[in-house]
Design goal:
Blueprint: H1 4-8, H2 25-38, H3 41-72, H4 77-87, H5 116-120, E1 151-153, E2 164-166, E3 177-180, E4 183-186, H6 197-201, H7 224-242, E5 248-250, E6 255-257, H8 264-276, H9 279-291, E7 300-302, H10 303-321, H11 324-337, E8 351-353, E9 358-360, E10 367-369, H12 370-374, H13 377-387, H14 391-405, E11 417-419, E12 425-426, E13 430-431, H15 438-450, H16 456-472, E14 474-476, E15 483-485, E16 487-489, E17 492-494, E18 496-498, H17 504-513, H18 518-536, E19 546-549, E20 559-560, H19 573-585, H20 588-604, H21 632-646, E21 658-660, E22 666-668
Antiparallel strand pairs: 1-2, 3-4, 5-6, 7-8, 8-9, 10-11, 11-12, 13-16, 14-15, 16-17, 18-19, 19-20, 21-22
The protein binds 1-deoxymannojirimycin.
């Protein structure tokens, strides 16, 4: 028990000898004063010092509190906006973050749970935006697309040089700034971005307050197929003017480049002209093939590239046109490529001299690339069928047989290299669906289809490989859960995907259409979305060569691009898959995506005077860096698939009658009797 004296003297009593009984307030004051006087000078000084210290502490904490109150009340909103904006970020004191609501508001219930915290955080008073400033970008579209510079690139018209313009506000940048209890938070750090194709597609009017006016009902719909024809004519115009009879157009320097010296673009484009109905162009190219094309040349060609582009292109043009000129030329090049198979293992060399009839591996190795030796089968098999000469088919099927039995696969996934002496996989441990392995998987399915679904080993290898992909390579990005196919390197997953992998949604869909499991189609849909996002999330609306994906929970963008991977070579894989997806689902969104991609090609790669160029930086709409090269597959594949995507005739190259080789040359599915 405490005595009453002890209770009364808590504040001033330093010793028991000075304590007195507690009665009321007045008596207490008198008693305290008396006690004060009885204290020694040292004791009084100590007490005063203590009081002074407490006072200073009180004053300091009061001023900091009023500063925070002022942020919410005293000052004008606009002052706050400007000053805070200049001041930059300050950390939110720990403990001041609002508690997240326990229940999810109805309007955001279908947003993935891991995205919710970011959306809920500013559920505290926000400073309203001053009327004079621009509205922060809308939150529609992927979370990484919130910032952009107000710079647009005007379309290049024929005869015009690239023109760039700033928007009417003189280039002021819109910034998303939210204020929470006086602390300014920028919505996102990083480079200012140009509006992306995805935002444009989503109709995001981020830079304008007014909704877009409704289009008059009478407006004539754009003829998308015709727009592809127009693009082809433009590309052809450049090729004809500056690269006629040569391998590739260099549209910026208005000259050409040779690879094999065999008119690669001309041959690759033959069946595209036929399919697009470009008769005049087809006739002039035919004439060149008849009068100028000769394979009797002392030149080294790559077996795979010349098979898929030249042999494949000639065979399909023969089928479409019925013109035996193309079959004769196909026989000629086919037989000249055969020396490649004269190796100890019968796994072919990568290079052949079609004039001398000799073959060799690349200078630095005796390895060949797995995709290259396993993606020539459709063409050589068809050549045998047409010529009734089995040597071609035997040679390529020997390769298939060996690879089927080979050790070193990982759940059906193949390494990237195979040795032409030993016939074994080398440099094992790396597995990808991208460069050096991609079309191995594609040709398993397509050979099975070509041969009338009889060769069950091909189907087994394909099904096992897709299971291997699902088990080992599939991941989802953060925050948007985009499904992608990563690469395995010595047991570790590298979250990167080549644009080349975008053939896979189309191939999976083709398999599902032919009775393979439904979950192949589910995966095709998911991968198709990712491949489209690889375009939509870039400032030019064009995909990089390689994308890196974010796996970190709740930080960063879904897709990142390393500086070395920012180029776009006008590749076809995504529009190829869009074509398959549309054919099998009839969902208009796939056509719309293809249309957006075509417009991006037109905006950033079309060269005045003729031709399209590959570019060096898909993230820079101001300076996409023209690489001065139009690959032959832009005419052979990209424009062909776009045209077929937009064509309303499902019988135009029916997928029940043809298989496309990996260079988009359609070859017939064999009649069941053959
Ligand atoms: C084409 O030559 C073929 O599609 C090949 O299978 C992969 N590379 C190019 C197009 O990107």
């Amino acid at each position: 028990m405490f005595s009453p004296q002890r209770k009364d003297c808590v504040s001033l009593t330093l010793g028991d000898q000075y304590s007195h009984g507690y009665t009321n307030g007045k008596h207490r004051r008198q008693s305290c004063w008396r006690k004060w006087k009885q204290l020694s000078r040292l004791q009084r000084s100590l007490i005063l010092l203590l009081l002074a210290f407490l006072f200073i502490c009180g004053v300091l904490s009061f001023s900091s509190l009023t500063e925070q109150w002022r942020g919410l009340s005293d000052r004008s909103v606009k002052e706050d906006w400007v000053e805070m904006d200049n001041r930059g970020l300050r950390p939110i004191p720990p403990g001041l973050l609002p508690k997240l609501p326990d229940s999810v508001p109805e309007v955001i219930q279908d947003i993935p749970p891991e995205v919710l915290p970011a959306l809920q955080r500013p559920s505290v008073p926000l400073l309203p935006k001053p009327p004079a400033m621009r509205k922060p970008p809308s939150k529609r579209g992927p979370p990484t697309l919130q910032k952009r510079a107000n710079v647009t690139v005007s379309h290049l018209k024929d005869g015009e040089d690239p023109v760039f313009r700033k928007e009417a506000d003189g280039g002021t940048e819109a910034r998303t700034v939210i204020s929470w209890r006086g602390v300014m938070i920028e919505a996102e750090q990083g480079t200012e971005l140009h509006p992306t194709a995805h935002e444009k597609e989503a109709g995001t009017q981020a830079d304008f307050d007014e909704p877009a006016p409704l289009k008059p009902v009478s407006e004539k719909p754009v003829d998308r197929a015709e727009a592809v024809r127009e693009a082809f004519r433009h590309a052809w115009k450049g090729y004809k003017a500056f690269a006629w009879g040569h391998d590739e157009l260099k549209p910026i320097s208005k000259t050409y480049a040779e690879w094999f010296g065999l008119g690669l673009t001309m041959i690759d484009a033959l069946d595209t002209m036929w399919i697009l109905g470009l008769k005049d162009e087809f006739e002039e190219a035919r004439k060149w093939v008849e009068t100028e094309l000769s394979f009797s040349k002392n030149v080294d060609v790559n077996l795979f590239e010349s098979t898929i582009r030249i042999l494949g292109g000639l065979l399909s043009t023969y089928h479409l046109s019925g013109d035996t000129l193309f079959l004769d030329k196909a026989k000629d090049i086919g037989s000249r490529l055969m020396p490649a198979f004269k190796t100890p293992s019968k796994i072919p060399f990568s290079d052949v001299n079609i004039g001398k009839g000799t073959a060799h591996p690349p200078r630095w190795t005796t390895d060949s690339t797995v995709a290259e030796v396993t993606s020539i089968q459709l063409e050589f098999r068809e050549l045998s069928r047409l010529t009734e000469d089995s040597q071609y088919q035997k040679a390529v099927e020997e390769v298939t047989k060996q690879v089927h039995k080979l050790e070193g696969k990982y759940d059906g996934l193949v390494p990237m290299f195979i040795n032409t002496n030993s016939g074994k996989f080398t440099r094992r441990g790396a597995f990808t669906l991208g460069a050096r392995a991609d079309s191995y998987y594609e040709y398993l399915l397509k050979q099975w289809l070509q041969g009338g679904k009889k060769e069950t080993e091909l189907l087994e290898d394909y099904l096992q490989a897709i299971e291997g992909v699902k088990k080992n390579l599939l991941r989802q990005t953060s925050p948007s859960k985009l499904t992608f196919v990563g690469e395995l390197s010595n047991g570790r997953l590298n979250p990167k995907m080549d644009h080349l992998v975008c053939f896979l949604p189309g191939t999976l869909a083709l398999g599902a259409h032919n009775g393979l499991p439904d979950d192949h189609m589910d995966l095709a849909r998911q991968l198709m979305e990712t491949c489209y996002q690889m375009y939509a999330q870039m400032e030019t609306g064009l995909s990089p060569e390689i994308a890196h994906f974010n796996l970190q929970y709740h930080t960063g963008r879904d897709i990142d691009v390393k500086p070395a991977d920012r180029h776009n070579l006008l590749r076809p894989e995504t529009v190829e898959s869009l074509f398959y997806m549309y054919r099998f689902t009839k969902e208009e969104k796939y056509r719309d995506w293809g249309w957006i991609i075509l417009q991006s090609f037109n905006k950033y790669t079309r060269v005045p005077g003729g031709g399209y160029t590959s570019i060096g930086n898909v993230r820079d709409p101001i300076n996409p860096v023209f690489r001065d090269k139009m690959e032959s597959f832009f005419l052979g594949e990209t424009l062909k698939y776009l045209f077929l995507l937009f064509s309303d005739d499902p019988e135009l190259i029916s997928l029940d009658k043809y298989v496309f080789n990996t260079e988009a040359h359609p070859l017939p599915i064999w009649p069941s009797t053959s």
